Amino acid sequence: MSGSKDCGGHHKSPRKKFRRVITCILIFLLIILITILLIWAILHPSKPNFTLLDTTVYAFNATTVNFLTSNFQITVRSQNPNDDIGIYYDRLDVYATYRDQEITLRTRFPPTYQGHNEVNIWSPIIYGTMVPISPEYSVALGAEQMAGSVFLVIKIDGRLRWKVGTFITGSKWGK
């Protein structure tokens, strides 16, 4: 009889070790993903609400050669409707358009943080000097001015991040 007994199971193959490591990594990543999805579903962040409160027109002059000079002061209210989530406004640009054509330069709001259920109010001046507009828009603008009202759209574009506790998300663009 031989003194050593070998059952052949002491030398595990590298392939089995590799499978176990990969399986553990995948299970770990799945747990993290499920945790993130649960947190997102529970907190369910909502976009901030923007309201145009007031507009003061200092200048609005269309020339016959298809140029527009305008100067407005607007008052904008921003409300964070989230109960547990803050919002970082990294960049917010406000401007006016007429029939989807920008008629003012973009004015940037200062970067700011808005806590949960908080309200911010800004009053920037937006303006455009000798902004070229298309000939057909120039005719329509003249007709609207003669009628006594001009339909403009105030737009706010920007980049924001959500803050939940100490966790801050990546950038998100909004319009």
UniProtKB/TrEMBL annotation:
Any one Gene Ontology cellular component term annotated for this protein: plasmodesma
GO biological process: defense response to other organism
Residues spanning the membrane: 21-43
Domain Late embryogenesis abundant protein LEA-2 subgroup: 75-171
Organism domain of life: Eukaryota
UniProt keyword annotations, A-Z: Membrane, Transmembrane, Transmembrane helix
Protein name: Late embryogenesis abundant protein LEA-2 subgroup domain-containing protein
